[in-house]
Please model this.
Amino acid sequence: MTNESGSGPRVSWFAKLAFRIQAFLLKRGWMGPAGNFLMAITTTGRKSGKQFTVPIGYLNDGDAVIAMNPTGNSNWMKNVQANGDVLLHIKGQSISMQGRLVSDPVEKRRIFDIYKQTPDTFPRYFGVTVDAPEGELNAALDKAHFVRFE
Model:
């Protein structure tokens, strides 16, 4: 089933509620160890101009924060592309940052290799294991969309 715009699966009311609760907890730093890889991101809607806060995975890359979306179709990513100003909520702290899509192939590979260092979660993000044949890894990398927040 797709949503009203026909752009993807409809999110159930229960999932929306769970995301709101998770975002509430993340904004306050109440997610325990999950706060080491989950954050809440507040974006401005590209059409509505409203503020939206959702939980997403992240990793630190020096002073930058990296987030990944396997398809590039999420609303948070589309909102970041339209207006890069975001508020990231990480471990109870809110940080204003600017997000930009990573398009340089060398930088995408470097970030992909950072994700490969977490073999337990890598398959969930990319749909392949870290020891998959190179062709499968390259296909997963080609599909992935990374955003750098600085």
